[in-house]
Amino acid sequence: MSGYKRERKALARQIANLESYGQHSSDEQRLNRLKLKLMVLDSDRLRERAMRFGVNLVEAVGPWHTDEARMWLREKEQTNARRVINDARFDWWKRWIGLLSPAVSVLIALLALLLAALALYLQLKGKIPRPPATH
Questions:
Q1: N or C: which end of the chain has fewer CB within 10 A?
Q2: Does residue 132 lie within any of the structural domains?
Q3: Which residue spans within the chain are E strands per DSSP?
Q4: What's the whole-number average pLDDT of the chain?
């Protein structure tokens, strides 16, 4: 399991435990800090994924919320970020398919031509048994 998934799972477990057992106002403050930490973690992960596809998520999705050292997206903005990332991923695959499909088509055509030439050669040389002639 990756470090992100492990950390996210631990934070979600802490939040669930605190929500079910927390009774004091300090528990509520701790719960808010944990939720904020989870949003920062998810936002950082989305930003990393977006960079793989050449998307600057800070400019593409907003508004980003900040404090002294961190930036994060709320749930609605994270949904928009996922949509932007999925669109960028689709464009990336579309570009590669557009580049590779003509080359693959030529290779398939050449293989078919070679196979047909081989079959014709073998038939003319008598290596392939012909079906018996019926009278």
A1: C
A2: no
A3: 65-66, 71-72
A4: 89
121 in any annotated domain: yes
Residue 35: name the closest of 13, 11, 9, 17 by CA: 11
3-state secondary structure of 66: strand
Token pair of 13 as six digits: 């477990």
Considering the entire predicted model, what is its pTM?
0.71
Q: What share of the chain is helix, strand, coil (3-state, %, to 5)?
A: 75, 5, 20
Q: Who contacts 33 (Cβ-Cβ below 8 Å, separation ≥6)?
A: none
Range of the domain at 84: 3-125
Place of tokens 């994924």: 49
Q: How many domains does the chain have?
A: 1
pLDDT tens for 78-114 read 999 999 999 999 999 999 999 999 999 999 999 999 9
